[in-house]
Design a protein that fits this description.
This protein has 139 residues and is of the alpha+beta class. A hairpin with a 2-residue loop joins strand 1 and strand 2. Helix 3 packs across helix 4. The protein is globular, with a radius of gyration of 15 Å. The chain binds a DNA duplex (13 and 13 nucleotides) through helix 3, helix 4 and strand 4.
DNA sequence: CCGAAGACACATA
DNA sequence: TATGTGTCTTCGG
């Protein structure tokens, strides 16, 4: 079986399925981040600290690393390890799921992957919005 | 280098 | 609701 992103293919898929189901990964996975810019690394470091069942927003991350929200969005969008680095826990300040990549699909066929991931992690929605109690502020 | 483009935020009408 | 502006990083010419 092949090697995939620093772990066996089998284990990688197994952990990925767990995350899709809203379960916690069995073990913390070490991922190489050599290709990232130093700015991206700073952003992903914050993402790693977002607790399960909580979300934060682009502006708060920006403040935490002394940058701007758009720059944070750009870094989040180029996350090389989605799911493992929980970019799905970052939402706009209005607490909707935001303009993540999948949101460009036609509405009737839109998979709403981000929302489903969040719901399985226990994030409470009311209509299109996440309840304010789920907001986490980076320390 | 310079300009344009973002998974944004905030102000103003 | 809907433009318009500010701000910061990346990428392409």
């Amino acid at each position: 079986m092949g090697e995939h992103r620093g772990m066996s293919e089998h284990r990688y898929l197994e952990e990925m399925v767990r995350i899709f189901r809203g379960q916690e990964p069995h073990s913390r996975v070490r991922l190489g981040r050599e290709q990232n810019t130093s700015f991206q690394t700073r952003v992903y470091t914050v993402l790693d600290r977002i607790p399960r069942g909580r979300v934060t927003n682009y502006g708060l991350i920006a403040k935490a690393i002394d940058s701007g929200p758009r720059a944070v969005g750009q870094a989040v969008g180029s996350n090389p390890y989605p799911l493992f680095v929980p970019c799905h826990r970052v939402v706009p300040v209005d607490m909707t799921v935001g303009n993540y990549s999948m949101s460009r699909a036609p509405r009737h066929s839109r998979p709403d992957v981000k929302r489903r991931l969040l719901e399985r992690e226990g994030i409470p929605f009311q209509g299109e919005r996440i309840l304010p109690g789920a907001l986490w502020t980076p320390v």
